Amino acid sequence: MSVYLSNNMRTRDKKKYNAIVKTSIRLINKLDFSGISMAKIAKKAKVSPATIYIYFENKEDLFTKIYIDIRTKMSQAALQGLDNSKSIEEQFKSIWHNYLTYALAHIDFIIYRENFEQTSMMNNIQQEDFELFGYITNLFQQGIKEKYIKKIPPILLISFAFIPITTLLKFHFEGMICIDDKIIKQASNLAWNAVKY
Amino acid sequence: MSVYLSNNMRTRDKKKYNAIVKTSIRLINKLDFSGISMAKIAKKAKVSPATIYIYFENKEDLFTKIYIDIRTKMSQAALQGLDNSKSIEEQFKSIWHNYLTYALAHIDFIIYRENFEQTSMMNNIQQEDFELFGYITNLFQQGIKEKYIKKIPPILLISFAFIPITTLLKFHFEGMICIDDKIIKQASNLAWNAVKY
To answer: What single DSSP character describes residue A190?
Structure first.
């Protein structure tokens, strides 16, 4: 499902494709979804409008694929190097660290994601499609079974275990906090303390 | 600073005033801030446009005063019956309970508040102006001093102690959770476990 660098493409096509995606993210983050046309994207990406339609059916298809790609990348980054032979607590804190580190290095993705999630296109997105969702669900189930994590509704667990990541990122971009490794450690500790058995 | 029922007004004026405020909240929650004019509010509130300008300088003044009033009301509700001779934990959980109970009973306020906070009018709002902000700040300071609460940056404390209230309300309005007394108890426990020493 990766939007960047699809393997079946020739190099020249890949370049065009990536230019479309990059340009779209830049324009949307600047102008919002409503202020954008396929023609505008084509012009700024220096491809012909027909080229965009080879890869994407329409605006909604383009915007949705970009969103899915961003979420997929964030999911992969969060799970990188994760080892399920390690303790639940270690895996939990590793996800926090990986996710935040990746997010801070990809501000454009975070802004795009936040904008997209305000739109009705979000109705077509299934959380279950992302590897991270499945991993966290399993981690919670295992943790509850082995009495490392409290037995409470999953949505309550998520609200304290991982949603604060979004809160902290928002504060970071607003300049109210400067997230570094120390803050990530403190925050993941708070999150773990909230949900641990 | 109360927008509803100012004491210096005659009953007939109060009625008009409250009609303006109520109508504004209803229209904004339906149409968003950009789709609204003072003339439209006047018409729907059944007052003359000139009447609105007796109380409010312009749209921004009207919208901002309504926001401040909502926040003031929520702040008062959260602090109702609070007793600072009680333990930090009891006061903490009492704020959770009062705030969520009030919010669930005033959905229109919550929607207005969320919409307002997306606008640039928010730049004129000082968090310090609300009683609740001062109360929580003091509670944290006292808690840290007496080693009931972890000594970490206040913004981290807030992210786990009270921001999850907003998350849970969002999930409630989206139908992903149904907040009742049991959920409030579980959630305030998670929040307390996150920040306690």
So the answer is: H
- The answer to whether residue B153 neighbours chain A at the CB level (below 8 Å) is yes
Judge whether A197 is closer than 8 Å to chain B, CB to CB: no
What distance in Å separates the CA atoms of residue A174 and residue B48, rounded to the nearest whole number?
41
Locate A77 and state its tokens. 């980054």
In the DSSP assignment, the letter for residue A151 is -
Q: How far from each other are the two terminal CA atoms of chain A, in whole angstroms?
A: 37
What predicted TM-score, i.e. pTM, was given to this entire model? 0.87
Which among A180, A92, A79, A95 has a CA at the least distance from the CA of A143?
Answer: A92
**Each residue's pLDDT tens digit, A103-119:** 999 999 999 999 999 89
CA distance A96 to chain B (A): 14
Say if residue A6's pLDDT is above 60. Answer: no
pLDDT, tens digit, 9 for 90 and up, residues B20-30: 999 999 999 99
Does residue B183 have a pLDDT over 60? yes
pLDDT of res. B106: 95
Of A150, A190, A194, the CB nearest to B156: A190
ipTM over 0.90? The verdict is no
The answer to whether the CB of A184 falls within 8 A of the CB of A154 is no
Contact B190 A187 (CB under 8 A): no
Residue labelled with tokens 């807030």: B158
B160 close contact with A: CB closer than 8 A: yes
Please state, rounded to an integer, the average pLDDT across all residues of chain B.
Answer: 93
Residue A99: C-alpha distances to residues A114, A162, B161 (Å): 16, 10, 22
Residue A116 CB-density burial (10 A; 0-12 exposed, 13-18 middle, 19+ buried): buried
Q: At B172, list the tokens.
A: 């409630």
